[in-house]
Amino acid sequence: xxxxxxxxxxxxxxxxxxxxxxxxxxxxxxxxxxxxxxxxxxxxxxxxxxxxxxxxxxxxxxxxxxxxxxxxxxxxxxxxxxxxxxxxxxxxxxxxxxxxxxxxxxxxxxxxxxxxxxxxxxxxxxxxxxxxxxxxxxxxxxxxxxxxxxxxxxxxxxxxxxxxxxxxxxxxxxxxxxxxxxxxxxxxxxxxxxxxxxxxxxxxxxxxxxxxxxxxxxxxxxxxxxxxxxxxxxxxxxxxxxxxxxxxxxxxxxxxxxxxxxxxxxxxxxxxxxxxxxxxxxxxxxxxxxxxxxxxxxxxxxxxxxxxxxxxxxxxxxxxxxxxxxxxxxxxxxxxxxx
Length: 339
Prior knowledge:
Blueprint: H1 2-27, E1 33-42, H2 50-72, H3 77-89, E2 110-116, E3 122-128, H4 134-144, E4 149-151, H5 152-161, H6 175-187, E5 195-196, E6 202-204, E7 207-212, E8 218-224, E9 245-247, E10 252-258, H7 260-265, H8 268-279, H9 283-298, E11 302-308, E12 313-314, E13 321-328, E14 331-337
Parallel strand pairs: 3-4
Antiparallel strand pairs: 1-6, 1-7, 1-13, 2-3, 2-8, 5-6, 7-8, 9-10, 10-11, 11-12, 13-14
């Protein structure tokens, strides 16, 4: 009897300790995670000089610094995503905001979207020409209206109503983007083209960010100027929820960059989350299948960034390069080329 009593006591103590460990693991706050992209495309090491490469690396690190500071101090993922994308919208290196490409009419038409994973609310805007930070307008649509998407003059009027910063369209003019338009107009006025840097690297110049905060909430955002020489107010996947942007705390957050028509047709961002939700795929399994198999089979080029609810990060792309980077507590990586 004494032996049996001792055995029961040991089992009880072990069970109690295990329960406490499980409770501790459940109540431990998640670690933050942050991932960004600045466009995927034909980005070759051989055509990138050291000064240009450094400029991109510095810009990506600055964006990560901006978001990581917010997350590290307990800030919300939505604040981090907006702040990160604003730094890239302000940087002419990227095809978003100040660095946006020109349409056939010689305008800069900007698109953006944002989505929060805790409540799955979303905001998106398309074809704006006077809003300094399109990502902030997308957030305003989500938080200050009953709608998900606004476009053109109506979106600009809403931006003014929300006291967002309005600029003259000339603010978005950059000589290299304008020269790219002139070049393509001489070659083939019907052709649309990816954004191009000084060294001839061509990329889908969308920028994006996904963040997981200390409260376990995921936010994803995307911003772009679209394609050079685009016509008829063409809009790509960047402002389309489920195509270029998606977030759900139960699965993941995703921001895409690529040939937008393919990402819209095959709802790429949502497909990643759907594979995780319905099939039980891991983030890596879902990303690898969509980018390296399904999209390739359909003829689509590009990539994406993603974070799941556990803080795992993926950055797959099927082009030769993608400006990208990620940060966690005490860890960071910034890359450009496939290797």
